[in-house]
Amino acid sequence: MKTIRLELVDLLLVGVGAIPGALLRWQASVHLAPFLPFASAGADLVVNVIGAALLGYLVAPPATAAPLLLALGIGFCGSLTTFSSWMLDIALLQRQGMHLDALALLILSLGLGLGAAAGAYRLKGQLQSHR
Amino acid sequence: MLKSILLVSLGAVPGAWLRFRLINHFEPIVPAKHWATLAVNIGASFCLGLLVALNQLCLSNQLMLLLATGFLGSLSTFSTFVVELLVLLHKQAPAEALLLALASVVSGLLALELGLAIGGLQ
Question: Which residue ranges of B are tagged as binding site?
Answer without folding.
Answer: 73, 76
